[in-house]
Each structure stands twice: as structure tokens, then as C-alpha cells.
Amino acid sequence: MAHAFPEDELKPVSCEPQTRNRENPADIGLNDVLGNYSVTLIDSLSTLAILASDPEEQHARHALRDFQAGVKALVELYGDGSDEKRCGSRACGFDLDSKVQVFETNIRGVGGLLSAHLFAIGDLPIRGYTPVWEDDGRGKSVLIWDGVLNYDGQLLRLAHDLASRLLPAFSTATGLPYPRVNLRHGIPFYQDAESGVCRLDGTSSDPREITETCSAGAGSLVLEFTTLSRLTNDTRFEDLAKRAFWAVWERRSGVGLIGGGLDAESGQWTMPPLAGIGAGIDSFFEYALKASILLSGLSPPPTTTLTTPGMHDPQSYLQVWQASHSAIRHHIYRSSNTEKHPYYAQSDLLTGAPRYTWIDNLSAYYPGLLTLAGNVAEAIESHLLFSALWTRYSALPERWQPVGNMHTAGQPYIDPNFKHWAGRPEFVESNWYLFRATGDPWFLHVGEMFLRDVKRRCWTRCGWAALGDVVSGEQRDRMESFFLGETAKYLYLLFDEEHPLNKGDRPIVFSTEGHPLVIPDRLRTSSRSRSQSETGPPQESRDNAEDAPTCPAAPSPLPLTISNVANSPDLFHAAALAQLHLVPINPTRSSPLLEASGSSPGISLATVQSPSNYTFYPWTLPQSLIPPTGISSPIQVPITSTLTFPNLNPPAADGDKGGPQIIPLGALQKVVEGVLINSLSNIRLSMVQQSKSLGMAGVPEFRIQSIANWALGRDEKVLVSREAVAAVSPADPHFTRVKDLEMVDLVVDAFGIAEDPAGGQDDEKGKVLAEWDIELPENATMESSWSELQAMVLSLLSSTLAGTADHPTLTPADVKRPATLTRHIIPAILPTGAGAAQLPAALDPTTAEDPAQLPLGHLPISTIFFLDSTLCPPHRLPASIVRTHNILVLKRGGCSFAEKLASIPSFPPGPDALQLVIVLSVPESRSPGENHMSAGGELIRPLLDEVQRTPHGVERREPLAMVMVDGGEATVGVLRGAARSVGVFDEAGKLVEVKQGGLTEGGGEDGRVGLAVKRRYWFESMGVPIGNLIML
């Protein structure tokens, strides 16, 4: 205030104000934030309000006086936001010719004003401050701040003014706001962007204005804008912010990740398409979880054309957080299976494949968010690494590389372009959340380390400087507003355990700028249902209680050492990754020893000396917290292997073998499932061993993690063609093809009925694969429908049944609907046990070509009988069916697999006789556990625990081959569409058969339904399966 006010920031080294760079409008590092509206004061008001609850009365009184004086200073500069006093000495509200970033202006300006307003009127607590509304003598209710100001909501009106000036940025078709806006003129630079006019005077230095925003910038408006809408009854802000949030989420990739940059006009992700948890993405996740807290118990605003009811549901935001965290754990998290200590890196947005390993300073917020969500163990694990890095560098570099390169001899290093520390709060913010959740004194010592290092490295005679280099300690002449608005705030709350904000039990959230926000209780009462009593909880709270994140109880202090964190078996894993063993034992920690003076707080040896050897950390950790018999669990060393294939291409005609051994053109092809290898010549596959992903947990398998140094996602498959495999020796133990004895694929050519071009027909009717549609009366059964179908066929359109009370009415199918032949691949599982039989040679050829490559309509087997029943005793299948059909399809359930096979009569083998039984595992036949497996694409293996027998109990001489497939609607429809005949047992136990020639006649040999079995193979390397390598 003494050296820079009313400007935006202070230069702490030169003791001068920092203003916008008007000479260089492209200097967005300054101009995005500094809007010429005293941003540091606005950003610091909530910190002053928090300091006003200090346990020392004098300090609290001074802080409250400074808070109120700061509010008065703002009002004098920018007016009080009312029509009568709209203008101040500097501007009328925030009518300023400043082009600013929407995100930064919202979190610093709008959020700071709203939080300060909530403190001023008592909706956020200040110890000893009880606001009393009084009449000012002119009929207006005010809070009288003696000798300072009569407060009547000036900050709220100024917040409304500032937020209103951001609204032009939301005029996009995508719902994503433009990244920047002029507080006076709106967005003329975007409106003229296509014609290249980027400045108000008509000049342009670029072909068009940058319209790229980021997920954090577009999706981190919900907290401030919703609070503003609820306090002012102006729903525009809440609607637009929520619309922008969901516009980001709807653009997530197929693997559930969101990227950093996306274009506000097109909605497309920008290049490179990276996903992570840090810069450009961070606060989107934060606002997903915190919005579910802030919105809890609130009635939704009226639905408009901009929003839907689901956009207002707090449970929806919680589900976004849960889905996001799940995707992060699966694709971005680098686990201890492959790293010395886990961390979160950068992955490919579309596939989840690892792309970069750097860790940025902003990512230090994530442990705090995990703590808020109740994932305390993961939060501690993540925070350990940031604590180790701070111990090593006495600050956090903006970007650190845990994986070295040839220039660093393979050792971790600081990115040379990101050596600075800007005074960021994320690390101490997470430290505060973790201490509140665990009470572990370890986090107090982390906070003490943070405080000592900032004190000795960043103090200047008029402020706190950022560090230009965390190693050398070079200071930068800038103090961003968040240092006082966030960093100092979280540090203070860490050590004041009795602060009201540390004791409350209300849905108070801290914004991404560290501003506490809450929707006052008086605005939450309307969320109760009219049918509920005033004492009962809202129905939504009861419904969602089980899904809400819960923070686990803090563990009991350990004897002698107290700290559970200091006794963590992986404590030294983070130390090893950060290389704390390279820190000198008695350093001066990049700081001289100084006597206390007006320009220095004083640096003594005790300020810089560690009680330990720095492998215990934080470096302030006392001996009393160091475990006397501390043991580190061993660091896992991943088992890796590399398969390098030679040049498998035939030599040139002239015999020349020279030239580089390169991968042939077209050898690799990107497909939806992953990568297709058409030639293994000169290919190098890098593999890592891990536990089997499905089925037998704990059984090791290899996963190909990269092809020719191109990293793959965890779920990406490597598909290799038969031609590529044929060039490799089958006796090579490093690359062995093994027949899968559990799973096969059914290749099916089936007819489906195209949608009625005239419309108006029920989609379900299209599933009846006959020449007639059946209109069933209410409560009619499937058996009765097949009875009527039989009667219809036999009577050839006889109308004697029409209109009677006991039979449905028959109507001709629309003959205009054409039938189309399509190919389908259906996974099937083979049975096990004494009754399991091998596939017959006709279905399991050893030298035939891949059936999936046969032309459409030319599969070898076309006689399929679809039994729309379970085939259980006393029902028996007629002998005519098994003699004239190669495939029998029936439903699971009602009896055992052995009983089903025993209901099939014996028959002489022959090319036209039954060869395979396909059992449909329909949903009603599965247990809850099987339904869960089916949802994940797994099938349970059928057990035939006794030898197969005929209906007369005689052991079957030629056992029947059987497979089981998922019995969902899609599979049932395909197999029904491939059947020559469909049958069902009527109520008398008689089989009613309907031939489906109507769908195949006229097609001839070019349009025949059919089925074939395709064998699956897996690959092994030295006896270990390669899980994600599949042969086509």
C-alpha cells in the first residue's frame, strides 16, 4: 500500500508499482492479470479478514481495521456500484480500457470482491466481529464501520460490475468463453478476428486474434459466478459458467481425459493434445469437486435455453470429479511399479499414452484436492514428492524432470526454461488440507520449512520477491497478487488451529485463488421439498449421502515418534526420486548469515541447518520425529524386455543388402484400438511386466509399452497381421504364438432389417425376423406369439383368428423394408470339465485361411437353428433339427449345461448334422457377479462336470462341442438374424418351428447367412504372455 497502491502489483526489489505493459500488448504475462483495477488489494482483502481472527487481540484489531480501510479505498477509487455513486476517483466501476484474461479476472477480481463481501456481512466468520445492520437515517440499512465507512454491499455491486464486463466473452456457439475481454469495449478483437483486425484502431500484427482458451480457464467459473448469481438474483452468471463447464466436459476424450488447450470458437482441442493435472487443466478438476459442495442443498435456478436440469445437480459435478480421478489414476498416474515413487505426468489426450514426464509446480494442488475428496493415502503419497523437492531446492521449480537425458547423465533435472518460483501457494495449500485431515505434526514441520525458506530467500525491504532461479536464489522484481491472496493465507491457517475457518462445518469452499466462498444459509432454505418437514434433511442430501466423499479418521499417533508420515515405508522412495542424498549435509542453503535489520529478517545458522542429513525431510524435522528403527520398503525395479526383429524383407534382386535397416513403409498403422503391425521387419517392441489385467490377478504378463520408441496407452492394443507373424520362426522362444484354449470368435453373417423409411414403426418390431409383424395384446406372452405365428404360416393369411379375444391380430410386414447382410464378430468362451468336447475339424481348421477375411455371404456354415427357449427337461429337441442344422443356438438358464446337452437326441455324424451348440448367457440367467463381469467384457467359463449323455442316459459316443456367448440384445439379434429357422416350445411342450426363408431368398450364393469359428492366439516371450498383443 505504501509503495504501489493504487496500481495492480508491487515490485518488491525496486519498491515501485508494477503496471500493465501498454507498450507491448502481446506481453500477456503481465497484461492478462493486471487490469489496472488494484488487483493486489482486491486479492488480499479476504486474507486481511482471516487475519482479523488472530488470537492476539491487537493483531486482530489491526487486521480488521486494514480490511475495512481497504474496502473504503476501493470504493473511493471505483465507486460503490450504485446509480448514485457509480464513479470513483479513478473509474466508474471497472470501466477501464484494459484487455484482460477472463479466468484471471474472475478468480482474482470477482472472487476477491465476493469473498470480502461475505466476510463484511458476517456470512464468513471473523472472530469477535458481529455485524449489526442499522438505519443510516435515510432509510437504508448499513453496517456502520466507525470512522471508516457505512457498508451496504458496495463490494457485491462492484463484483457484479466487474463480472458483467466479462460476459461478452461468452458469445460463442460452443459455450466456451473467449480467453480475453476488454473491460470497456468487450470483444471487438474477436468479432473482427476473421478479417485480421485485432486492435481498436484497426491495425493488426497477427492474421487473427488468438481464440485458444484452456480447460481450467473455461471450466473454473462456477464457484464465483454461482455465488454472484445467488447473492444478486441475476442468473446469467451461473448459467453461463455452468454451460462453459459442461462444454469442456462434453469434449473429453474416449478414455475420459481432458486436455489443456481448446479453441473457443471451434471447440477443438489444440495441438499437442496433452492431458495431465497441472497447468491449463488443474482447476477444472478442483471446481468439479468444490461445485458439488457449494451447490449442495441449493434449489436449481429456472432452466433456460443455456442450461439443462442436470447442469445444476451437485451430484453431476461429483460424478465428473470421480470419473476424472479414475481416468487420471489409470492413464496419468505413474505408479511405483515403474517409478521409484509415484507421480503424475503428461499423457496423450486420446489414448492415455505417456508423452512427457515433467512435473509442474501447479500440480502441487492435487494432494489437497485428493484430501478434500477423502483420498488421504494417495494425497500423502503425492505430497511426499513435493516435500522432498522443496527440501532439496528450498522452493519448487516451475517444472522438474524426474527422468534424465543424455545431457544430464540420466539424472533428474530442472527444466532450464522453468527454473523460477513465482511464490505459488499450491504446495502449502495441500499441506494445510493434509494437516487438517490427519493432524500429523509432520505437516507442521513442512510448513515451518516453507516459512523459513521463504523468509530467508524472498524477503526484501518492501515486499516478498519471486525467485528467478531456485538453485542460485536470484530474485525477480515481482510479487504477484496471489502471494498475499493465497500463499500467506494458507500458511497462516496452517499454524492457527483454532481459526473459525478451521472449525466450521458448513459448505465453505476455497476458490482456486484461495478465496473462501459460501452460499448463505438463508438462501438454502428454499431447497427443501414442500413435502418435507423443516427438521428433516433435504431429500437430495439423503439420496446422495452414500456417494459423497468421506474423509477417513486420522490414524492414532505412533508411540515415541508420533508421526505416521515420518514412519511411512515409502518415505525414502520420494527422497530417492528427488535425490536428497545429493544435498550437502551442512549447507548455507543459498543464503548468507545476516543480522536482523530493517531490510532483512535476520538469517542465523539455526535458520538454515538441518537436524537431519536431508534424506529425512522436511529439513526442519527434529530428531524426536525421526523413527529410531525406520525401515524403507524396497523400491520396485520394473521387469522390462525388448523384442527387436531383424530385417524380414527379402533382399533386392541385385543382392544389395546395404542401406539403413529402416521400418518398411506401411508397416505401422494407427487404428482405433491401438496400432496395427503389417510387417515386423526392423520393429522394436519394448515391454514391461505387470499383473494380468483380467482373469487371474497376480499372474504376470508383459504389456507392450512402446513400438519403436512411440509410447502406447495402457489400454491400447497391438494388432499384428497373420502375414507379419508368418515371417517369424514359430520356434523362436522370444516370440511364440500360442493357441487360446479358452476363447474363440464367432464370425457371423446375418441379416438385419433396415429402418422403415416411412417411419412410424416401433423399432422393436424390426427384430422379428419373419415376413409378419405381430401386434400383441396387453399381457400377451412370447409363447403365445409364436403359436400365432405358426397358425399364421399354416393358414396362409387366414383371418379366422383376427379380432378374437384369445389371439393377437396379425398384420403383414412392410415389404418396403429391405434386408441387409452384415458381418459381426462375437467373442465366445469354451467350456471346461469332463463333458467338454473339442471343436470339430470343420469348425477348427488348422490350415484354412482366416474366416473373417472371406467375402461377405460366403461363410462355410449356413444351417443355424435358433431356439428361443432354454431346452430343459422334459423338453427334448426333435431329431429332425439336429440332422439338418449344423448350429444350435439356445438360451442359458433353467437347468445345468449337462441337462441341456442331454436334451439333444443322438444322431449319426455327417456334414449336415449338428456340430456346435451356442449357449446365450442372457441377463436373467446370470448372477450379480456375472453381470458385473459381463459389463467389463468378461465371460465366465462354463463347467461341464460330467460326461455328456443322450436323452436315454447313455454316454454320448460323439460329444457335442459347445461355446457360450454374451446374451445381450445385440448378440441375440445377430444370431437370430443368421438363423435359417427359429423355434420355441409352446405351453404343451411341443416345438413350434418357423423357417426364415423370407430374409434369404433371392440372395443366392451372394447373399447367404453363415457362421464360422475363428481361433484366437496369444503371444508369449520366454513363457510369459504378452497381454496386449493380438493376432488378426
Considering the chains and any ligands shown, give keywords for the structure:
alpha+beta, 26 helices, 4-stranded antiparallel beta sheet, elongated, 10-stranded mixed beta sheet, 1032 residues
Task: Provide an overview of this structure.
It holds the Pfam family Glyco_hydro_47. There is one protein chain. By secondary structure, the chain is an alpha+beta fold. It contains 26 helices and 43 strands. The strands form 14 sheets. A ten-stranded mixed sheet has the order 40-39-35-36-37-38-34-31-41-42, with helices on one face. Helix 5 (154-164) crosses helix 8 (222-232). The chain is elongated, with a radius of gyration of 36 Å.
Q: State the strand order across the main sheet.
A: 40-39-35-36-37-38-34-31-41-42
Poorly predicted ranges: 193-207, 526-545, 753-818, 998-1003
Instruction: Give the strand tally.
Output: 43
- What distance separates the N and C termini? 71 Å
Number of helices: 26
Mean pLDDT: 85
CA-based gyration radius: 36 Å
Percent helix range: 25-40%
What would you call the shape? Answer: elongated
EC number: 3.2.1.-
Protein name: alpha-1,2-Mannosidase
Active site: 104 (proton donor), 282, 398 (proton donor), 426
Subcellular location: Endoplasmic reticulum
Question: Could you give a short description of this structure?
Answer:
Helix content is 27%, strand content 18%. By secondary structure, it is an alpha+beta fold. β25 and β26 form a beta hairpin.
Element layout with pairings:
Blueprint: E1 9-11, E2 16-18, H1 28-31, H2 39-51, H3 57-78, E3 99-101, H4 102-120, E4 133-135, E5 141-145, E6 149-151, H5 154-164, E7 180-182, H6 188-191, E8 212-214, H7 215-219, H8 222-232, H9 236-249, E9 261-263, E10 274-275, H10 282-294, H11 314-332, E11 333-334, E12 343-344, E13 346-348, E14 354-356, E15 359-360, H12 366-372, H13 376-393, E16 399-401, E17 413-414, H14 426-438, H15 441-458, E18 459-460, E19 463-464, E20 466-467, E21 475-476, H16 481-495, H17 500-503, E22 509-510, E23 516-517, H18 539-544, H19 571-578, H20 605-608, E24 640-644, E25 668-671, E26 674-677, E27 684-691, E28 700-707, E29 710-711, E30 717-720, H21 722-726, E31 736-753, E32 772-775, H22 782-795, E33 809-812, E34 819-829, E35 864-867, H23 879-884, E36 887-891, H24 897-902, E37 916-921, H25 928-935, E38 961-966, H26 969-978, E39 981-985, E40 991-995, E41 1010-1021, E42 1024-1026, E43 1029-1031
Parallel strand pairs: 26-30, 30-43, 35-36, 35-39, 36-37, 37-38
Antiparallel strand pairs: 1-2, 3-7, 4-5, 5-6, 8-9, 10-13, 11-12, 13-14, 15-16, 16-17, 18-19, 20-21, 22-23, 24-27, 25-26, 27-28, 28-29, 31-34, 31-41, 32-33, 34-38, 39-40, 41-42
